[in-house]
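Model it.
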Amino acid sequence: MEKIPMTVAGQAALIDELQRRTSEDRRTIIDAISEARAHGDLSENAEYHAAKEQQSLNEGRIMELESMLAMAEVIDVSKISGDTVKFGATVTIVDEDTDEEKTYQLVGDPEADASAGRISISSPIARALIGKAVGDSVEVAAPGGARGYEILKIVFI
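Modeled.
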C-alpha cells in the first residue's frame, strides 16, 4: 500500500468530513428512507430510490475517507524549512508572459483545491517546482502550450 502524503490541516478536514458523514448524514438518510417506505409501494417510489442512492453514495465516500486516512502520511509543514520547494511549501510564482503573480501551497492529492490556492504535489506545476529555489525559472507544459514561471518566494507555514 502506498502512503498518501497530506498536511495536518488536510487530515483534520478529512476527519471532520468522515465524522459528519457517519453521524449526521447517515442518520438523515436513514430517516429519509424510513419516511419514503411509509408511503407504500417501493417499486414506484422515487423518494425511496433517491434516498437509497444517496445512502450508497454516502457509504462509498465513507469507505474512501477511511481508506485515505488509513494510508495517510501526515506531514507537519510548520516543522519543515529550507530554501527549495518541497511538499507543504507555499510558493509565490510570477507568470513570465503576463506578470501575473500566483501563490500555491503544495499538498497531497486528497486536499488539493486550486481555487483555494492548494495544488496537488503530483500536478504538473508542482512537479516542475519541486527542488527549485527563489529566482529559478520553470517551464510547465499546459494545455494551451508551455508556460514559464519564476519563483518569487518560498515559505513553510
